[in-house]
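$ ./design --mode recover --in tokens.txt
reading tokens...
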């Protein structure tokens, strides 16, 4: 089964950028679509970009559209979340999730989840 490891979290100033890798070592990585989610303290989990196994299908939540992009490197078994023009409301724990069907990546129990990485945006 695929295992996911997020990294790259930290403190960034408003207006700045950050890139989060989601690595999946030792698996048939190109069989999986990957989705990004985030959860701020006291708030529900929110979906961010999703990317298909070949990188061809990408969906964006309205709250991050135009600022966040996702890409994948199937040689390195890694998906990246590039976050630009960051806002304090982007502060959250960011998770990546995997499924063989991009339509099944909905933030539920059936996806495979990473452990999350904390991103804090200061004003």
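writing sequence...
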């Amino acid at each position: 089964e695929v295992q996911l490891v997020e990294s790259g979290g930290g403190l960034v100033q408003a207006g700045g950028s950050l890139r989060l890798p989601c690595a999946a070592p030792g698996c048939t990585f190109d069989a999986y679509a990957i989705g990004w989610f985030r959860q701020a303290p006291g708030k529900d989990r929110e979906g961010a970009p999703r990317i298909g196994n070949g990188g061809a299908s990408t969906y964006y939540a309205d709250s991050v559209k135009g600022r966040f992009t996702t890409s994948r490197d199937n040689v390195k078994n890694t998906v990246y979340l590039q976050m630009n023009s960051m806002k304090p409301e982007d502060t959250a724990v960011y998770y990546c999730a995997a499924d063989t069907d991009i339509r099944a990546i909905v933030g539920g129990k059936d996806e495979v989840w990473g452990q999350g990485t904390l991103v804090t945006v200061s004003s």
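exit 0
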